[in-house]
Amino acid sequence: MNETSDATPVAVGGVPQHVAIIMDGNGRWATSRGLQRNEGHRAGTRTAKAVVTRCRELGVAHLTLYTFSRENWSRPRDEVALIFDLLVDYLNGELKNLLDQDIRLKVFGEMDDLPFVARQALLRVIQKTAGCTTMTLNLALNYSGREEILRAARALSAKGIQGQALSEEAFAAELYTAGQPDPDLIIRTSGELRLSNYLLFQAAYSEFYFTETLWPDFGPEELERALADYQGRQRRFGKTGAQLEADT
Ligand code: FPP
Fold this sequence. Notes:
Elements: E1 18-22, H1 26-31, H2 37-58, E2 62-69, H3 77-100, E3 103-108, H4 116-128, E4 135-143, H5 145-158, H6 168-172, E5 185-188, E6 207-210, H7 220-231, H8 241-247
Helix pairs in contact: 2-3, 3-4
This protein binds farnesyl diphosphate.
Residues 23-28, 41, 44-45, 48, 65, 67, 72, 83, 86-87, 90, 190 line the site of farnesyl diphosphate.
C-alpha cells in the first residue's frame, strides 16, 4: 500500500491532469455492516458524486470512473439492474450540477449494449454538457481495455492505416480517450492490487495509488491524500534522475 499518513503536499508535480479511479469495495462495505450489497452501491454513488465535485474544485481536468466493466454483466441480474438504476438517478439528479460546474460527460465503452433507459439518460447528459470545458467526466461503462484496443485496431484496419502510418498517435486517436491525456494517476480502492482490464493502453506511464479504504469510505480527504502522494513522486518516463534534472 502506498498511503501517506499525513497529507502534506510535496510540490514536485502539479495536480494530475487526468485521474482514473477503480471504485472497488462497495459489496464488502455493505456486507461488513450486515447490509445488502446494493446498499454498498448506493453509498458508492454518493462517494462518486462527492469525488467528482472535489476533483473539479482541485483542478483535475479529466476524471475517469470505472463504473461497470464488461465482465460485470456476470453479476446477479438484480445487482446489475440496481447499478443501472443508480446510474440513471445519478444522471438525472446531477445534470444541473454538472452544467453549473461546467463538467462535460463522456462514456468509455459500448453504449449500444446498455439498458435502453440508461442509454437515453446518458445521451441526454452527454448532449447537454457537450459545451462544458472545465472538466471532463468519463464514465467507463460496459468497458474492457482489451476490447478497446481491438476496436481501435479494427478501425485502423478499416481505414487502411498500416505500416509506418500505424503510429502510436494514430492508434491513440481511435481509443475512447482520443483527445484526452493519458491518466497521470490511477487510484484503486479496497486493497486489491490489480488493473482489471482498465485503460490498458493508456496506463503505460501512469502512477498508481492503492488504498485499503473501501470505495464508499473514500471521501474528498483521501482523494486529497492521493493527490498529495502523487505530487511527491518524480515521474521519470524511462529517463534517469540526472537526465530529468538536466531537462529542467
Ligand atoms: C465495485 O464494488 C463497484 C462496482 C462494480 C460498481 C460501481 C458502481 C458504483 C459506485 C455506483 C454507480 C456510480 C456512478 C458514478 C453512478 P464491488 O461490488 O466489486 O465490491 P466488492 O469487491 O466488495 O464486492
